[in-house]
Amino acid sequence: MIIRPYKEPVVNRETQADFMRLSILVAEKQLLNGKTVTSWRDKINAPETLETVFMNPAGTSVILSDTGGGIASAVNDIFDHFGGGEKHLRASGDVYIKVNGVGCEPYVYTDPEVLRETIRYFRRCGARTVYVIENCTQANFTRLVFQATGYLRICRETGAVPVFLDETPAMPIFLEGIEEFVDISRFAFERLVEQRDDNFYLSLPKLKTHSMSQVTLSIKNQFGLIHQRSRIADHNYRIHQKFADIYRVLRPDFAMVDGLVATTHGHYPTTYNADKCVVPMDLLIGGPDPLAVDTVAAALMGFDPSAVQHLALCRDTGIGIGDMDCIDIINKDLFEQRRKNLTCDLLDDYPPDLAFLRGEERCCKEGCRRNTESVVEMLYRDHGGRGGFTILMGKGIDRAAVEGIRGRVHIAGSCAMQDYGVFLEKKLGRKNITMSPGCNDLALSVHGLCKNMRVHPVRMSPVNPLRSVALLISAKLRGSEANIVPLI
Question: Does some domain include residue 36?
Fold first, then answer.
């Protein structure tokens, strides 16, 4: 079965304030064609008229809660402000929590204690089953990430059900903006798209900048519902459109951002540079409009939300509120006190004897460039990686510079491979060349860079090697399609 998503009515930015004022008026009357306005579904499934494209006024509020009094108290504050967990539960009584379990490295994933207290909250509110779902980044597999982060332990202790989406079958969905199909987890499709009226879907991302997507919050968090090999294509200048397209197909019912700490200089800070890249924030951010939550979270980190491309694209479709002037920030003083000026730019902390040759015509930060550079930083500073080789990336690399290369080379991305892959293999020999095709084949990027930097991939896992192997076997037996690093 192939599903084309519902096409949303478009609301331009200039009329959003008018729609918001209209929504407040209708909310006061509590009627929409004779029916109480209770959720997004009333508007989404109604005819496309002026009255059906305005946003739920509850969705224009975003609350910040200080965690100084404890994480449990902050979680309570977030949900209780919007009527309590019982109000959010649907017919099934089931809750689906999409964490940011991108990897095992410190500071990159949703804090386990935030997850624990969120599960406990919905248990107290009468949830039947709480599912914790994720499909981690490429070059890794989710079962290992859940073991390393403590998510598996928390699920056992709270009775939540972990779901490793890389071990679930695929379902193709069509993305209208990029006009291509991608494979989403069938489990996610069935529970969060087909049965969305019966289930409560909560996005629980971490407050992070991102070297390729500027920020990574609840809208970016949904990329983890897509199977890993469908993430390789268009992980370039079109990636923001891809995020916005996914958001048109399925949207969380609520977003709560783990803001215990934030990251600056990208989404994968090295432990070596943690003092420069990890920023204590001690708060949670939440609301029933994920775009509004992301807009406030981006502004809190110091970004102009209108300049964050995927947020702007979502705003322009009218699916939620993406204008700070139209969002009521609860605990505004906390927002102002903890507002930062963070950056998504990397530290560019590389081995001094490593040479980069970047394309002058095209070298996408959203793909082969920052993907490769962030891995180099991590291998260099946290795993003792060495330089002494050359990396090519992008389109339009200077020919004379390439002809002068001696020694080992890693070619990142299809653009550079097309221009110089065959030439360099003939010139230097295949054994001296590693390549990573596509725009962001992270598994082959890690493989090639580990080989050149003299780091064994197994050393990158915080889990005992034998335990890691056992987890991998278990994942493969259950059908995992994770795009892992070749180990031989």
Answer: no
Domain of 410, in residue numbers: 355-455
Residues with Cβ < 8 Å from 11, sequence gap 6 or more?
A: 19, 53, 317, 318
User: Which residues on adjacent β-strands are paired with residue 356?
Assistant: 391
Q: Are strands 180-185 and 170-175 parallel, antiparallel or unpaired?
A: antiparallel
> How does DSSP classify residue 190?
I
Question: Side-chain half-sphere of 443: how many Cα atoms within 13 Å?
Answer: 18
Rounded CA gap, 265 and 108, in Å? 12
The gap from C-alpha 413 to its chain's centroid, in whole angstroms, comes to: 21
Determine, yes or no, domain membership for 363. yes
How much is the CA Rg of the chain, to the nearest whole Å?
23
For 233-265, give the DSSP string: TT-STTHHHHHHHHHHH---SEEEEEEEEEE-S
Q: How many domains are there within the chain?
A: 2
From the list 280, 285, 278, 282, the residue with the least C-alpha distance to 264 is 278
Task: List the pLDDT tens digit at each of the 488 positions of the chain.
Answer: 444 443 333 444 344 444 444 343 333 333 333 433 333 333 333 333 323 333 444 448 999 999 999 999 999 999 999 999 999 999 999 999 999 999 999 999 999 999 999 999 999 999 999 999 999 999 999 999 999 999 999 999 999 999 999 999 999 999 999 999 999 999 999 999 999 999 999 999 999 999 999 999 999 999 999 999 999 989 999 999 999 999 999 999 999 999 999 999 999 999 999 999 999 999 999 999 999 999 999 999 999 999 999 999 999 998 899 999 999 999 999 999 999 999 999 999 999 999 999 999 999 999 999 999 999 999 999 999 999 999 999 999 999 999 999 999 999 999 999 999 999 999 999 999 999 999 989 999 999 999 999 999 988 999 999 999 999 999 999 999 999 998 75
Residues 275 and 408 in one domain: no
Could you give phi then psi for residue 38, rounded to 5 degrees? -120, -20
Distance from C-alpha of 316 to C-alpha of 263, rounded to nearest angstrom: 27
Q: Coil, helix or strand for 197?
A: coil
What is d(CA 400, CA 405) in angstroms, rounded to the nearest whole number?
A: 9
> Based on the domain organization, do 268 and 206 belong to the same domain?
yes
Burial call 116-129: b when 16+ CB within 10 Å, e when fewer: bbbbbbbbebebee
Plot region of 348 (φ>0 → left; ψ -120 to 50 → alpha; else → beta) = left
User: Is 268 inside a domain boundary?
Assistant: yes
Two tokens, residue 67: 């965690």
DSSP 426: H
In contact, 72 and 78? CB cutoff 8 Å: no
State both tokens at 144: 């290992």
Contact 32, 302 (CB under 8 A): no
